[in-house]
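Supplementary Methods, section 5.1.

A reviewer requested that the exact input to the structure prediction be made available. We therefore reproduce it here, unchanged from the version used in the analyses.
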Amino acid sequence: MKAWQLGSYGEAEEVLEFVDRPRPVPGPDELLVRVLAASANFPDVLMIRGSYQVKPPLPFVPGVELCGEVVEAGPGVTEFAPGDRVLGGTALPDGAFAEYALMHATRAVPVPEALDDAQAAPFHVTYQTGWFGLHRRARLAAGETLLVHAAAGGVGSGAIQLGKAAGATVIGVAGGAEKAAIARELGADVVIDRYAEDFVGVVKEVTGGRGADVVYDPVGGEAFRKSTKCIAFEGRIVVVGFASGEIPSAALNHALVKNYSILGLHWGLYERLAPGAIRECHTELTRLANAGLIKTLVTERLPLTEVPDGLRRLGAGTTTGRIVFQP
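The structure derived from this sequence is encoded token-by-token as follows.
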């Protein structure tokens, strides 16, 4: 089979090699799937650079998320059968940027009927991250105000839709007119182009000086620091990631004085420590998808041969929505 293999760390376009590899064999609790679509995620970029917390032994095939068709179930697997369409995370080192990949059977879930293959591939990370961040961690309630950074990006686009589905007023922050237009199309009530406006002032104006009840921050750096200036009394800042490349330091005296919470979200831990919660969440997300309330923003559907360039642009922060590769 054809696959992108990583033999040394660096930038994707420099170190990934398109090679022939044997088709992987599923072990206990594993599924061999034919890759129908593989999504590009920021952890893929970091993993290829060698700066992610997960480091499979070299060489390996990267790609943490996919939609696939079950080809073979490993020993002891009874929940899925050949022909089933599933989505979820991969079992590295046999990742998604290939014609075939492995998945952990206990972490795979059925694809909602409303989604095609490309829409299903990024569904798990986008909406599971958003749902756990907004509902399990921040307890977002109807009538509250939600501020979403990187609103036209992968996880930000999902947070906008989930916020609206929860009955919140959503303020989206995006970089540039094109990304701002996408955030508006996704349903954000107020959209701020951070290149043209200071979001702190706009948030205070929109909320009558109260500030945002919940901040969803996959950016870090300056976005986090400024968010502390427009967070409401008893507000919650959900730290999702650091796409800016800067991990900010929190002034805990400021959090104390203003009575707000800083909540970390490492969604991957739930897969290991609370798998039942993952499946409960997927049931709710499937309901929302089939009702048309959430739909993955896939902006590029590319052939498998374009993985390095797609990851390069994702790492540079020039993409919107989700990039999906289809063999």
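The domain at 2-122+296-326 is CATH 3.90.180.10 (Quinone Oxidoreductase; Chain A, domain 1). These observations are discussed further in the main text.
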